[in-house]
Structures are given as structure tokens and as C-alpha cells.
Specification:
Elements: E1 6-7, H1 51-63, E2 68-74, E3 78-82, E4 90-92, E5 96-97, E6 100-101, H2 107-111, E7 121-122, E8 131-135, E9 141-145, E10 148-149, E11 171-173, H3 185-189, E12 196-201, E13 205-210, E14 217-219, E15 223-224, E16 227-229, H4 235-238, E17 267-269, E18 275-279, E19 282-283, E20 305-307
Parallel strand pairs: 2-7
Antiparallel strand pairs: 1-16, 2-3, 4-11, 5-6, 8-9, 9-10, 12-13, 14-20, 15-16, 17-18, 18-19
Keywords: Lipoprotein
Region (Disordered): 293-320
Protein name: Lipoprotein
């Protein structure tokens, strides 16, 4: 439940009272995505692939309808398309977009399940005119994005996983415009930014931005002492978590923190298994409603979301 508050596993620097037992849950695992341990992604288009095992592992998440598509921000790849369950969508270099045609059949389609087109709709930040369909050889309709057939990957167990990226040098996550999500675009557009840095906003002052130049936020329902998160489930689709960023890949960020141990720049494990960066022990996020570097559309949303300063304090909000 989105509003439920879940205690996180974290370091004692952020006020941990007792560490929860170790979990074997895959990083980023969610119930809707089907939980199972992923293996390496160096396989080709199906060689050495156990179709039966993958079909069982993928569960309902891989065979489910697409629903409302979303745009998710990945630390390395930038913006990628996901289905309503948060699973990454991919394209195949051996397919064609003009005309749309899939070259992934048989065992390939078990490893890379085609995304059904029947109920796929365009969510925020997606041009619905780019969505279409192609009839596969078995008569089913597969979703296309700017002509490219869309797939999931059987070894993506969880929302946010991108284990299919670059597999066989032919499979790539889909960007919202149908192109390949290969990373680097955000850094090139913003002049080669560190993983986390700051910028001067005309209205908000100095705020934190990620490596793609996107504004970073904090949620006032979260707690740093002891650390808790209130953004789970559907919430993280609208407010993607910021993945861990090495301290030496930051510029202008307060790495010390204000806690009793003076260690505020730490990484913790969320209750869904994903790892999230914090500033002064405050979990940080981006906003799916921000479409380009410089956007601050998440500022003040619901009276609970605010851009974050380099010391972890919220911009324009009173702290208790």
C-alpha cells in the first residue's frame, strides 16, 4: 500500500535500532513482477536458455497486459519505458519498424515475451501517437513504439530491472520515443554531470540534480531518524528512487550529515529490495512528471514533495 510506512534496513549512522533479518529478495523485487533470482545476462538470442524455467520464473508479471505505460529514469540509461507493473520494455535490432515486424519467435519469444497491445495506453510523458501494434505469426497483437515491437525480458524479476540491456548486442531498453536507451544522452545534454550535483534555480535556489540534470526531491512523509519510507508500491512509479551514487561521483553535496554520527550520505535497502541513495539520511527521488533538465514540476506536490538542498533540507517546507 502506497501510504504504508515501512522500516528500512540501514546503517546505524541513520538511526537503525535493530537490523531486520537478511533477505534473499532480488533487488527491486515486487509482488506484481514475479519474484525470482536473476542470473547473468550474457546469453544470446536463446542459446542455453531453459524456456520452461524462465516461463515459470517470470510468473504473471511477464505474461500480463501492458496497461498504462510509464517513463522511468534509470541512473545509467536515462529515460526508459515501463509497463504498468514497472517492468522495462525492450526492442530487438533484428526486428523492423517500417513496416513493423518481429523476428523473435519460438524460444526467443519465451525469453523475450512480446508485450500485448490490447490494453496498452500512453501514460505521462509518452506520445500516444507513437503507440501501435503488429500482428504476430500466432495471430496475437504485439505493442509497437514508433513501429518497433516491444518486449519484456524473462530475467527481469522486478520493477526497475534492466537485465536485458545490451544482451547479444541486439536487445536494448526502449526510450519513450521508440529509440534505444543506451545512456550518455543526459550527460551530453548537460555537459557531463556527476551522478549528483547542484544547480542554481531561479525560484528555488540551490537544489540537487542527478546525472541527467533532473531535479531531485524528498518526501516529507519519510523519516531519517530512524530511517523509514512512506513511498512504496505505486508511489515509486511516479517518484523513481535515486540509485546509489558513489561519493566521489558527487559535486557540492554535503556528505557528512547532521546526525549524531555525522554520516548522512549512505545507501540503504528499501523494503522492496531496491537500493536507494540518501542525503543526510533522507531518501531521494526524481519525478516522472519532470520531462527535461531544469523542470521542477514535483515541487510542492501534495504538500509533501519538495526539491532537496545539498544538505538534505527541503526547499520551501517546514520540518518538524
Amino acid at each position: 500500500m502506497v501510504g504504508a510506512v515501512a522500516v528500512l534496513a540501514l546503517t546505524t549512522a541513520c538511526g537503525q535500532e535493530s537490523a531486520p533479518p537478511a533477505s534473499s529478495q532480488n533487488v527491486g523485487a515486487t509482488a506484481s513482477a514475479g519474484g525470482y533470482a536473476t542470473s547473468g545476462t550474457g546469453l544470446g538470442d536463446g542459446a542455453g536458455y531453459d524456456a520452461g524455467a524462465a516461463g515459470q520464473a517470470g510468473g504473471a508479471g511477464q505474461g500480463a497486459s501492458a496497461g498504462e505505460l510509464s517513463v522511468s529514469t534509470n541512473q545509467e540509461l536515462g529515460k526508459v519505458l515501463t509497463d504498468s507493473g514497472g517492468l522495462t520494455l525492450y526492442r530487438f535490432d533484428k526486428d523492423t519498424a517500417e513496416p513493423p515486424k518481429s523476428a523473435c519467435e519460438g524460444d526467443c519469444a519465451k525469453k523475450w515475451p512480446p508485450v500485448p497491445a490490447d490494453d496498452a495506453t500512453a501514460g505521462t510523458g509518452i506520445d500516444k501517437a507513437l503507440l501501435g501494434s503488429v500482428v504476430r505469426t500466432d495471430g496475437t497483437r504485439q505493442l509497437t513504439v514508433d513501429g518497433w515491437p516491444a518486449y519484456r525480458y524473462a530475467q527481469d524479476a522486478a520493477a526497475g530491472d534492466v537485465n536485458g540491456q545490451g544482451v547479444g548486442e541486439t536487445w536494448y531498453a526502449l526510450a519513450p520515443d521508440g529509440k534505444k536507451a543506451q545512456g550518455g544522452a543526459g550527460a551530453e545534454a548537460t555537459g557531463g554531470l556527476p551522478g549528483l550535483s547542484t544547480r542554481k534555480d531561479a525560484k528555488l535556489g540551490e537544489i540537487v540534480i542527478d546525472g541527467n540534470g533532473m531535479t531531485v526531491y524528498r518526501f516529507m512523509k519519510d523519516s531519517p531518524w530512524p530511517m523509514k519510507t512512506a513511498c512504496v508500491g505505486q508511489c515509486v512509479k511516479k517518484w523513481p528512487v535515486v540509485a546509489p551514487v558513489a561519493a566521489d561521483d558527487t559535486k557540492g553535496i554535503d556528505l557528512k550529515g547532521s546526525g549524531p554520527r555525522g554520516q548522512g550520505y549512505v545507501v540503504f535497502d528499501r523494503p522492496d529490495g531496491r537500493k536507494q541513495q540518501t542525503i543526510d539520511c533522507v531518501p531521494i527521488y526524481t519525478f516522472a512528471g519532470d520531462k527535461k533538465p531544469g523542470d521542477t514540476n514535483g515541487q510542492g506536490v501534495g504538500g509533501t514533495w519538495y526539491a532537496i538542498r545539498p544538505d538534505g533540507k527541503p526547499v520551501g517546507a517546514q520540518q518538524k
